[in-house]
Amino acid sequence: MIPKVFTKLLALFTLLLVLQTLVTEVVFHRFVERSADGTLNLLGREALWSGVIAFAVALPVAAWVAFRISGRLQRVVRFARRIAGGDLSARLATSSNDEISTMEDALNQTAERLDKDFAELESSRHELAVMLDSMQEAVVAVTPAGSIRWSNAVMQRIAGQQLTPGRPLVHAVRDPQLLACVRGAMERGELCIGRASLLAPGRIFEINAAPLPSGGALAVLHDVTSVEAAQQSRREFVANVSHELRTPLTSIQGYVETLIEDPNPAPETMREFLGVILKNASRMNRLTEDLLALASVESPDYKLTLQPVRASVLLEDALDSIGGMVVDSGVKLQSSGAPDSLVMADADAMHQVFGNLLENSLKYAKSGKRIRAGARLLPTEVQFTIQDFGPGIASEHLERIFERFYRVDKARSRESGGTGLGLAIVKHVVQAHGGRVWCESELGSGASFHFTLPLAPVAQIAAQPHPVPAPQPPATTQTAGAAS
């Protein structure tokens, strides 16, 4: 383009000079023909030579001017090509005050505006990508052809490396429900809702696929695994409570009906029936108390009164509280000692924890005839251990033993009067203290229940130089649930 402009400008200057020379020649030629004086002939020849000389001088000047103009236009073309290539930082240098300079200024302003607009668009796109990546939901956008347009970090973690832009969604995702929702949103142009259970092992996602204005669809996947687990747990809880209540109620109803049908029951029979009724009523009462205790410790409003207490005092009080039951059972209760370190604990809540663990071990320690309780100091906490030497617990039950109503030996647990909630209460109370709880066992070697309590901070110890010892437990202890 630039050589053509240069050629046209130079040709224009040349044409103007030639026309000027021709006009001068014609005018002087006619003037000389009408004059007889030789002076005019001489003047005409001089004028002709003057035109030729002027042409010879003006031609390079015209070429230089045309070169300057074409050079400036060539810079404009290079500038336009850089802008078209995406280099919005390109600018034209202006040095004169003519029309071309005005055009250059206008182009520079246009480039600055484009640069600013593109920077804002890039910033908005980056912010949108960050927001989508920070979402807990998985998001994937699909083109009208069914290829992946974009996906956030959560979706990429779920689907893996195969979720790349440009790849067909059907090749990257094998869940039929997700594919059906995306296809339905694109075909019908409306929101499509579904549920995916094959996208990731063990996880359930709720799908919301909506059509995009430019074509394609946007699918948002919300992980509802925990919600499903909570609902399943609630259903199991209701079923377990119903079952636990139905058994004693059925027994009570049967014995009461028998007493009503017999107008003159024998005193021994009446005493036996009333004893059975009282036993089942007590079992229902224990279940109700444990349910209330579990509801309390699981509530967000559950509050602890934490204060520095010596670990040795907590253990001694716990052993004293269950001493009477141990004597009656014939099981020997041993203490391996505990450090005098101060731990942060709610003494009343910990009395409940020790009571449940010791009573639980007592029920299954009769074969081993002894229970050992103790504690040891760790760098940031104190670990308490309640060990029995009974039949032990199989390894497949250890991970679930602290669940509500979970029993290893259901028949034996119900026979011993447990509700199946004691260890669940222990877990929640210990976790509320900031500690951990777990069980170790081998079949035939007994079971060891461990839990930890954090050490009291130095500031707490300084503020209370004489820690308040754990209060003496009441005469009656709360019955714990059976674990195994």
Structure explained in plain terms:
The protein has 484 residues and is of the alpha+beta class. The protein folds into four domains: 2-84; 135-223, 2-Layer Sandwich (Beta-Lactamase); 238-298, Helix Hairpins; 307-463, Heat Shock Protein 90 (2-Layer Sandwich). The chain has helices at residues 2-33, 38-84, 99-134, 153-159, 169-172, 176-188, 225-261, 267-298, 311-321, 323-329, 347-364, 410-415, 422-432, 458-463; strands at 138-142, 148-151, 192-196, 205-211, 217-223, 307-310, 332-335, 342-345, 370-377, 381-388, 437-441, 447-454. It has a five-stranded antiparallel sheet with strand order 2-1-5-4-3. Strands 7-9-10-12-11 form a five-stranded mixed sheet. A two-stranded antiparallel ribbon has the order 6-8. α7 (225-261) runs antiparallel to α8, α9 crosses α11 (347-364) and α11 (347-364) packs antiparallel against α13. The longest helix is centred in the first third of the chain and has 47 residues, at 38-84. Mean pLDDT is 78; it is low at 467-484.
Shape: elongated
CATH architecture of the largest domain: 2-Layer Sandwich
The profile of the biggest β sheet is:
5 strands, antiparallel
CATH structural fold name of the largest domain: Heat Shock Protein 90
Helix content: 55-70%
The largest beta-sheet arranges its strands as 2-1-5-4-3
**Count of all domains:** 4
In terms of per-residue confidence, which ranges show pLDDT below 50 for 5 or more consecutive residues? Answer: 467-484
Taken in chain order, the helices and strands follow as: HHHEEHHHEEEHHEHHEEHEEHHEEH
* Residue fraction in strands: 5-15%
Task: Output the CATH homologous superfamily of the largest domain.
Answer: Histidine kinase-like ATPase, C-terminal domain
By DSSP (H or I, 4+ residues per run), the number of helices equals 14
